[in-house]
Amino acid sequence: MNTDTSLLNTAIAPPLSMGLTYIAAGQSVGMLMENAVFNEKLAQITANTSVNQCCALMVASGVIGISKGK
Asked: pTM of this prediction?
């Protein structure tokens, strides 16, 4: 190994390591955002389902009350 190659490797190492760190951090943040969006979607589905179920129960109890003459 000559001196030029050794100096070149020494000069490239810090930017390369920081670049790889930025890539890993960006990928991690991207995965966090993707999970947050997916969890929000599931929360909205759960909320809509519970509202629909409550409405169905209110309609059903109204029908039962009407049939009993209340």
From this structure: 0.60
